[in-house]
Design a protein that fits this description.
The protein is an alpha/beta fold. Helices cover 30% and strands 33% of the residues. Helix 4 runs parallel beside helix 5.
Length: 280
């Protein structure tokens, strides 16, 4: 998967200003960020990159900076998996789930043992939104349920759902590399998933549980489809947005007959769980 790096050089380069820009860029699809001495480096899939959209995203706050410069360039090809292996460490979630690479030893102390080799797909467990989603999943009765993992990335949530007792799990992602990666990770974990390449139009059938860890704008756009595909009394679990965005997500959910049941937060990220209270 090809990524574009956007370097933002600004003054004053304070933590608050970095947080503001991170929040704005996350809303248009940037999924990774790194602080620099002079500002911030932000990363987005090249297929999603739009220079004009990046400029427009930060324009409303440009006046708070003494100076602000934006430079974007495609990242050079390299063996990203080798780079990942150098620094990847197992992740534990709620003391019950351990996400590890194939080269880490199995640990029987955890209820869920999930093997993930991301190959540039999102969802190793290192990002707060992935761990928040898994925390939510421990509170959902998945036994015998039908589950959709929308925007599956590595397939980590779909695999977790299957290991928590789901009967049928569909995983969908618009990115071909993510689809292949999910299939490989499912095989490594000895679970059967239905993996489909596509967007929201690929959703078919109805589900007891829908999981979507994407970003705010895409969630808002796709929530009506999620609601239609969700069985009455079913659960919709969302993440990929900041705590400050919860109200706008919840307002849309109410209009779709979805009632907020629980939120969990970490580092300003939030996961929200809804119950479908009526057929829409």
């Amino acid at each position: 998967m090809q990524y574009t790096e956007t370097q933002l050089t600004f003054s004053p380069a304070t933590p608050d200003n970095r947080e503001i820009l991170t929040a704005l860029l996350a809303e248009i699809g940037y999924d990774s960020f790194m602080e620099t001495p002079t500002g911030l480096s932000a990363y987005i899939q090249t297929a999603l990159f739009d220079a004009a959209a990046t400029e427009a995203a930060v324009e409303p706050v440009a006046a708070i900076f003494e100076s602000l410069r934006i430079d974007s360039n495609p990242m050079p090809d390299k063996d990203w998996n080798a780079e990942w292996e150098k620094s990847f460490t197992p992740i534990t979630v709620a003391g019950r789930c351990r996400i590890r690479a194939p080269f880490h030893e199995y640990d029987a102390n955890y209820q869920l043992d999930i093997i993930i080799e991301p190959k540039m797909s999102f969802g190793t467990g290192h990002h707060a939104t992935t761990t928040l989603m898994i925390q939510q999943m421990f509170d959902i009765d998945l036994e015998g349920k039908t589950v959709l993992d929308m925007g599956c990335g590595t397939g980590v949530l779909a695999i977790a759902a299957k290991k928590l007792g789901a009967q049928n799990v569909m995983a969908i992602d618009i990115d071909h590399w993510s689809v292949e990666n999910t299939q490989e990770n499912a095989a490594s974990n000895n679970v059967a998933l239905t993996v489909i390449e596509g967007g929201v139009e690929a959703i078919s059938g109805r589900f007891d549980v829908i999981l979507a860890n994407i970003n705010r704008n895409i969630l808002l756009e796709q929530m009506p489809t999620y609601s239609t595909a969700l069985n009455a009394g079913g659960t919709l679990c969302l993440s990929g947005f900041y705590s400050a965005d919860l109200d706008i997500i919840n307002n849309q959910a109410k209009q779709l007959g979805l009632q907020l049941a629980k939120t969990v937060e970490q580092n300003d990220w939030v996961s929200a769980r809804f119950i479908k209270t009526e057929t829409k």
